[in-house]
Amino acid sequence: MRSGSRLLKVLLQASEKAANIARTCRQKEALFQLLVQEKSLEEKNPRFFQDFKTLADVLIQETIRHDIEIEFPELAKLVQGEETNVFSNTLGESIIVEVCPCSKDTTQLLTKVMGNDAVAAELLAAEVHKDVQLSDVPIMLEIPTDFDINVDDLGIWIDPIGKARLKKKYKSWTVLCLIMHTCGAIRGTFVDSTADYISATEVVDEQTGLHLSGLRCVTVLIGAYKKSTGVPVLGVVNQPFYTNVNSQWTGKCYWGFLGGGISKSSINNACNADKIILLSRFEDADVKSKLLNNGFRLVEATGAGYKILSVALGEAAAYILSKGSTYKWDTCGPQALLLSVGGGIIEFKEFIINPNSENLSVNYLPIGTNFSNRAGLIAYRDPQILESFKCILCKSSH
């Protein structure tokens, strides 16, 4: 198996291990109870819920880094994501969260981080050290063995749990919000009952079948890019919460790569939703108005990773975001997936100013400490959609 295929295999397995950790945080009673314990502001650590969510993200990120390092030691230091692995526990101690040589040692470390909760720590450590095989990853197409890549020219962006927001249509801050907040599913959202979470209630658009919010919108995102150019070449998008049977979740995973004149993806057949545009619910009214006036159906869904995946699957024609509210880790993996099926992600603001430029693609070379996609984005599968946007959105069209 050549280096590109080997790396794809490692990333797929790492994404599934991350998905396992996400599901464990929700489904194991000991962890579930930690998440639903509502603490008052007078207690020692009122930030417990945010701390636990951060710990879950850090643990997943470090697990992915660890698993990559086993096969590709030179890549471990080039894995970048949202979280730092220095964690403060309830006693104010700073602890470096990392994967230890064995499950017992990792349990001891996590026990210290989690205020001596050995049961919860052992559950998490067991998932971290689980031997995940490629056959365990829910992919629809076997990976090729002949994909080659120059590993020395790679950097990696990861989002441990792609964040999604549910709509603020509910009135009370309840246990469900705390649970999902901790799992990384949502930030700062209001929901109305624990039963919604337990029964895996999803909000689905009846006309398009797209998920507007809920656990289906949560993703694990891993992308490799060329350090020489900043262009994504390999992407994995894993949905930990794809199907719920008898209160047990199973996932679905997609991959794509391109390089050396070869492109291949696990996405074969795609829908043709040429008039559906995905947006954030905070999108500018002017952008919405222009699209609506030109016959597009607008769908406000959550999670950048989920929205880009939906475009790659052909379930929407494009995802438009005029604001700089996504980050490199949100889009690197999904952009590689899109590129592998003939699409891409370009900078919204640059496109508006100069739609015929050949340098519009979002780039992944880190610049300073600002990792946001500051110019917004347009994610598309069929390049022809951009011709429509030139007439509708671009300044030169007025």
From TrEMBL:
Positions bound to Mg(2+): E82, D159, I161, D330
Classification via Pfam families: Inositol_P
Family per record: Belongs to the inositol monophosphatase superfamily.
UniProt keyword list: Magnesium, Metal-binding
Protein known as: Inositol polyphosphate 1-phosphatase-like protein
One GO process term, biological-process aspect: phosphatidylinositol phosphate biosynthetic process
GO molecular function list: inositol-1,4-bisphosphate 1-phosphatase activity; metal ion binding
Gene3D superfamilies found in the cross-reference section: 3.40.190.80, Fructose-1,6-Bisphosphatase, subunit A, domain 1
PROSITE patterns: IMP_2
Organism encoding this protein: Lasius niger (Black garden ant)
Cofactor(s) listed in the protein's UniProt record: Mg(2+)
